[in-house]
């Protein structure tokens, strides 16, 4: 490990330790040292719990502290942490996949056709102007409380993000390269495969990273409004019991899920764009 990486790792761990220490004991220290009016509410364990309480809730929700054993605990609870995480992760993945594929396909088609872009442009702008959150109750009404409504909500959020980037990436392809390919006898499909798509990939991947987070947001919002299982459902149940530590457990698990999906997209980006200088070392 180089000295530079060791220094960076040292500071990252130090910052994390400071945050955990302040979070765990900061409220008691401020109450002992400061007047009541200056005690920061953000450190109040009633609202944000404590790291130790969050860890205990994690062990309980994750069935690690159940006397009956992990397997028996998981099988006996419909929406334990494992099931909720699996359901949210699965719905996020499918919503992200469908939204990305359809967004790329629509962006390439409309980006390569001026007529179709002019015909469908006003409709896409009108649909994109609708706040996706406002459509969630309608989606649940159509698809029910099951997983399909969460996938549809994630698709709604992801599609337009990917579409607009792909559309602009397709339009920004160097016209000279397309002309040179056609001069050498390349068909429209060959031009699309060898010139347009590789050139637009950087634009597409620039949208995929935020699209992962948006897909997770779409699924969680859907679970907030109506769901049978999932991390959003877990948060709503914890809120009803005013249990901040269980809410924080679900939030941290969501963060972990988001990081995993983002790393998967970055790995795919590094592989597919390995011909670009910034990805040569990581490919």
TrEMBL record:
CDD domains: TM_PBP2 (cd06261). Its main location: membrane. It is a multi-pass membrane protein. It comes from Bradyrhizobium ontarionense. Keywords: Cell membrane, Membrane, Transmembrane, Transmembrane helix, Transport. This is ABC transporter permease. It comes from the Bacteria. Residues 85-266 form the ABC transmembrane type-1 domain. The chain crosses the membrane at residues 7-26, 92-111, 123-145, 151-167, 202-226, 247-265. PROSITE patterns: ABC_TM1. It holds the Pfam family BPD_transp_1. Belongs to the binding-protein-dependent transport system permease family. Signal peptide: none annotated. It is found in: Cell membrane. InterPro entries: MetI-like, MetI-like_sf. The keyword Ribonucleoprotein does not apply.
